[in-house]
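Attaching the record inline, Q. Sequence:
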Amino acid sequence: MNATRYMICIVLLIMVTTVVGAESDKTCLRTWTTQTGQTVDAAFEKLQYNKVYLKKENGEVIKISKSKLAEKDQKLISELTAAVSPKKTSTKEDTQAGDEKAAKALYKLFGSKFKNAKKSSLSTDELAGKTIGVYFSAHWCPPCRAFTPNLVKFYNLLKKADKPFEIVFVSSDRDKKAMYKYMKEMKMPWLALPYGDKHKASLSSTFNVRGIPKLVILNASGELITENGTGDVMSGDDISVFDKWNPTK
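Structure, as predicted:
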């Protein structure tokens, strides 16, 4: 029965791409389950930046990382997004393909998860669609401790201005305890590569890290914008720096 309902939803999604004003949300309402067992009744809207958009019956749209859904639901999302005719080359489809390519590039650079100052785990999907600062630093480094408060101020300024920006802290601390102490003391509001993660070596090599602090700026696809993010932040801790990195945003 469930398999039949899934196929009906897929067929309906194909049909609405050619009928203006068609409504599939109520017809395709189903129960979605997360990896932790939480459920929500909603219809699939779209997949963007590896985020699944689900529309509830009351019209509320919620979004969740595809990787956080149960495996059977991840498979269904793949089927639903593949249901659109491959002959179409609309901007929407091209954008989705670009989003998936960007997500793969970010997973290759950073792996699948980050930590925050509270030691909670977060998905790499948190970086989707954002300009990224990769911050190489350590508590034992005096210049790092001098620069970090400026970076925290800059980060909070961009967040207040609703700019799509995120930082990934890559620690060179002597141990995990020192890393978290540094994050808490400086009130780092951003993400961090897990201590001892194998991606640290490849990131340091890729971005020519010879000393710290160093802030490398990447676009949403993980491509280099500048290796001199540290100098940019110190030269002007305002939104104009972000606009310099992203002249089209």
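The CA atoms of residues 17 and 84 lie 8 Å apart. The longest strand covers residues 39-48.

More tomorrow.
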